[in-house]
Protein: Alkaline phosphatase
Organism: Pseudidiomarina sediminum
Amino acid sequence: MSLVLGACATSPSSSENVSVEATTAPNIIFLIGDGTGFEYISAYRYAMSELGQPVIETPFDEMLVGAATTYPDDDTWVTDSAAGATALAAGVKSYNGAIGVDVNQHPQQTLMEKAREAGWHTGAVSTSQVNHATPASFFTHHPSRSMYNEIADSFATTKFGERWSFDVLLGGGMSYFNRDDKNWLPELREQGMHIVDNYDALDAQQQLPVLGLFAPVSIPFAIDDQPRLAHLTRNALRLLTDAQEQSGKPFALMIEGSKIDWCGHANDIACAVHEVHDFAQALQAAKDYQAQYPNTLIVVTADHSTGGLTLGQGGEYAWHTDRVMAIQNSFEVLLKGLSERPNSAWREYLEPLLNLPLTDAQWQQLVSLEQAADESDRSYQKRVHATLAAIVGETTRTGWTTTGHTAVDVPIMAKGPYAEMFRGYRDNTDIAKALLEIVE
């Protein structure tokens, strides 16, 4: 599957060295690539390039200013997305699973809350459900990330005076706001919330506040659907800018490329490259906005990396980007297709979707998998998934060390006013502390 790289700005903003004494607070656009360690940026760059030709520039390249640690305040060096997001939102280390609270489960003021108290406009865009760990940690406070219904309730009820905690909130998660035990939608509409559930309605929306819920849970993977994060980003920026022009107040917008992490958990390299592309296009939309409105700070980082991705595997000095980009669907879609067919039909189904030069032995390794009489469906599906991932990894020469997170450092990128505050080797909490200082 081919992707088209968006135009990249090549010269740094003249406002990049503005001192912390600048009198007019900038807009803040904070992009978080969930699970996006340096290796994912490398994979994207190579996948978009051709061997023998100059390596392409990406929207990330000119912005790199440092690297960040990601460890939580827990009995491990490896963070989860909740503790990682709490560090990035509030500048406080916490335990894995914590949403906007410290290790004693005390709520911590977040970037969005401080911005709201200062009269700023606020928003978030996510390709996961909006009550997932990262967006939740910027707006809510809960002892566990698994409290999805309660997090949705917090989004629906938390207000600063007459205003919700957000002006614009876009992503998936309709099933959490319209549940059997509670349907928030009529109440929210009655109170003045504009709710949209499709992209055309979002494009036509002119007034804030806006809650956009475009899927029951998460938005489909980019490889299976259409790139969507840049579209959501442009609409969020449009709506926030209109509000800013009326109020004179800046805005803070968090944008999460949520499902890069999900691809990493699945050890699905084609899925990951397409998700990073989607994230890169959202960054390019932010950079295009900054070119028009220079008093805008863009910061990009990750909460952690996922999967222990390596570009090269099995001792062979190769990573086959052409094979990676030939794959047509995510493992999620492919595995669903396999579950609906007898093993005898698997090869016919998969061959045109994988587009990989698999050997007969590799095909036999997959189609010979049988569910044991005492084996649960879940256990069997995990075996099929692991076998498919291993075959794709072997054929593309993509390596993975885990289906979980890793403790490696992640990139920090920044451009615009105060960008120098993010330079160097930092702790993840330092990023939030700098952003919180800018809001003062």
